[in-house]
Fold MBL fold hydrolase.
Amino acid sequence: MGNMGLRFTILSSGSTGNATVVTDGEITLMIDAGFSARRIDELLLERGLTGENLTGILVTHEHSDHIKGLGAVARKYNLPIYANEKTWQAMEKSIGSIPEENRCLLGTGEARDFGSMRVESFGISHDAAEPVGYTFSDGREKLSVCTDLGYASDKVKQAIADSDVLVLEANHDIEMLRMGRYPWNIKRRILGDMGHLSNEASGEVLSDLLNGRMKRTYLAHLSKEHNMLDLAKMSVRSAMEDRGCFYKDSEFRLCDTYADRPTPWDRVGEP
């Protein structure tokens, strides 16, 4: 099967677990494995896949909502795992033994070709060993996945700037978080530069990036306690408009992700 462009599905996204699949028809990569192996099998099946279709797993960072089933899935399907050195060290004890040939290093800022798909990692700001986001390109189309960051630096914006489709964190509504039941030290962590992007911050990032090329952004990693799908979209759009960034739905769309089910397959090159 030749290269048919990039397609992806966000199997599930949120504070309870995260996993995304990107494919070009020949190579199929999963980003993170934040559920039990059984749950990952169920989510894959909902999108017509099994673990045997996967080429490998890319890891963003070692928090359990991103690596819960990583070791089990990799062992079950004999899959290589790609992560930077500090992430490997930080997750070593949690994922169990992995054969040496499946322990693959992908340094922060490094690019690697998987067939005709180029994957590049970029550093982000989060309270983990060395967290990253990823971009995927086939030379014509570009998808970027960027969640779990306290703020978006100029380097992050540069990495994701020319994306056709972006998966971007919109973790919390600031007021819902402030009024919520979490202890203050956790609230402070979430609100800080090493925490998570708020809806408003997500909108500010997008207003800097919207350049006519980006067609859609999936709002990801929504907090179960401190956000809602409709509120996230409304707040992001409002933050963009506050910064003079107006758009028609025919030009650019904000799309939902779900904590309990996959998004439909999306072809990156389609309008």
Notes: The chain has a mean pLDDT of 96. The chain is about 30% helix and 25% strand. The radius of gyration is 17 Å.
